[in-house]
Every structure is written in C-alpha cells, then in structure tokens.
Amino acid sequence: MDQQENRLLSVVEHWLPRIEVAGIPSPTARAVIERAGVWENWLAAWSEEGERHAEMAADALAVGRRVTAGEAYARASLFYHFGQFMAFDDLAAKEKASARKVELYRLAAPLLDPPGEILDIPFEGGALRACLRLPPGGGSYPLALIVPGSDSTKEEFPALERHFHARGIATLSLDGPGQGEGRVFGPLRPDLADALAAAMRVVEGREGLSGEVGLVGMAFGGFLALRAAASLPDIVGVVSINGFFDLGSFWPDLPQVYRDNMRFALGGEDIRESAERFTLRGRAAPDAPALILHGGRDRIFPPAEARKCAEACARGAEIHVFPEGNHVCNNISWLYRPLVADWLNDRFSGQKR
C-alpha cells in the first residue's frame, strides 16, 4: 500500500463519523469513498457527487420545491467541503472546490428551515462572512456564536445548528480569519477575539435577538473559543468541544494527516514554531461559565487537554470526558450535541420566548 492510499485510509479513519454527522448519509459517503479508490481521486469524486446534488437542487427549485432544493444545495455544499478539506496537493483545485462550496451554500441558506442569512462582518478593511439563522415563530432569541476549527467552516454546521434552534436559540456560524472565506486574511490566528467581537457588533440590537451571546467552539475552535472568551466580557458562557490547552505540547504525537492540515492552516516557515503560539498557557483566564467536552478515544487532541482547559478557566468548568467518544465525539453526536445546547440554554436568562 503506497503513501497516497494510506492517506485516504487515514482521512476515512479519522473523519468518516464527522462526515456522516454533518449530514451525508453513511452509505452515500462510503459509496463516494469507494468510487474514489485512491487519494488522487478523492477531490474529484466528492466534487462530482456535489454537482449531482446541485443539479437535483436546481431541478427541484425550478418546479417550486423549495424545501427539497434547500436540502439538496446544502448537501451539495457539504460534498464539496469534504472533498477539499484535507486536499493540499493541488491548492488551486482546493480553492476552486472551496469557492463552489460557498456558492452552493449561498443558494441553500435562504431555503433552509429556518432560513439562513449570509452576513458581511466588517474586519480589517475587508469582510468576514457568517450565517445567521433565527428559530421560527418570532420572538427575541439569545445567540450561539459557533467557532469552527482548523478545517471546518460555516457550511458544515446546519445539522449542529438545529439543536440550538429547537431550544429557541439563534445561531451565527462564523468563518474567522484563516477559516473558510476568512482565508483571505491569511492563516489561522491564535486569538479570534477581535473577529468574534466584530461579529457581535454586527448583530447587536438586531430584531429577533435578545443580546445574549454564548460561544461554542468545535475541535480547534474549542481552543479558539476559550482563548477569545477572556477578552469578551459580555458572553454568558463558552463551550469547548474536544479543544486543547497547548498545541505545541503534543505536536510530535499528532497523526501525519493532521500535521499536513496544520501546515496549511497555520502557515509560517517553521510550522512547529507556529503551532507553539496556540496555547492558553500564560494567557488571561476566561471568566464566563465554561463547559469542556472531550472524547476519551480522541487520537488527535489528547483527552488530558480537557482537564488543563478546565483548570485554565477562572471559575473552573463543567467537564465531561466520554470514554467512548472519538475526535469531537462525532460517533456519539446524539449525546454531546443535546448536552451542549441544553447547557447553553441554561446560561441564558429566559427572555427569548
């Protein structure tokens, strides 16, 4: 078995549950992987499947089937997302697939239930992009601000967002600097506080929102949410899902496929030096209530990082390490996602309904 075949198997091993929980049915995901066969065909196979679903969406929309069209456009966007998320051999092809992912999600957003609105967030002379979705029925809702990780983006989160909407919580999924559309601002930064503050300013006082905001960080975003929380005094709570305390401390033990991800996401001539900037050590402690979740079988970010994250919080934190959970606990999404939504709902004042 050559290195590229090993790469395909490694990507599948680490991320297939994530692909499935995002909204691509397991048989479909496995069929696309089988058609790809080898890593060189991965991006093409996923892109082809994305176009098939985009055509289904266009056909449905042409005859007025808006719900079907929205679901198919969102699914098509996901196929492109997972086609390019670990593809670093041909960056031009990766960029093209990423652009198609964004285009398809823009078509999907207004057709979703509840609908999404793509917002421009003024930032450093340009704009970050985020998707805002409010629960149906009117009212004044608190907001879960969702922070992606090193290779996730706003387009990946509709299935996660549903758990918040069902509890009367609006969602704002943001591509920060170095994430998704935010890649135009350069590689990933250790501190996203300025970007999150900019997003909060844009929705401040908006009709349908109560003004209360909680942070939810996924994987690498769990670290980013905790670090930013120390500079955002108005948030009501922060959730870190399989984040970490100090990336440099376990850098040598990262799987090779994830270090390839880091080389792209973090940038810099010395990737190890770049990685060591991503730490909570010596940083201001977040003062908001915190929830720390981790999977005991996470082979990317060690479960021991969860305890260190909890100890870094000024008030301590509620912590759950699920022995059976994998990276981001995507193999037990039925357990961790309702827990996160319920915990954040309990932090809000109840003005929303």
Number of helices: 12
- What topology, given as strand order, has the largest sheet? 1-2-4-3-5-6-7-8
Please tell me the total number of domains. 2
The CATH class of the largest domain turns out to be Alpha Beta
CATH superfamily of the largest domain: Alpha/Beta hydrolase fold, catalytic domain
- The helix/strand series, from N terminus to C terminus, equals HHHHHEEEHEHEHEHHEHEH
* Outline type: globular
Overall mean pLDDT score? 95
Number of strands: 8
| Contiguous runs where pLDDT drops below 50 for at least 5 residues | none
Q: How far apart lie the N and C ends? A: 57 Å
Radius of gyration: 19 Å
Helix content: 40-55%
Summing up helix and strand content along with how strands pair, one would put the structural category as: alpha/beta
* Largest beta-sheet details: 8 strands, mixed
Strand content: 15-25%
What is the CATH architecture term of the largest domain? 3-Layer(aba) Sandwich
CATH names the topology of the largest domain as: Rossmann fold
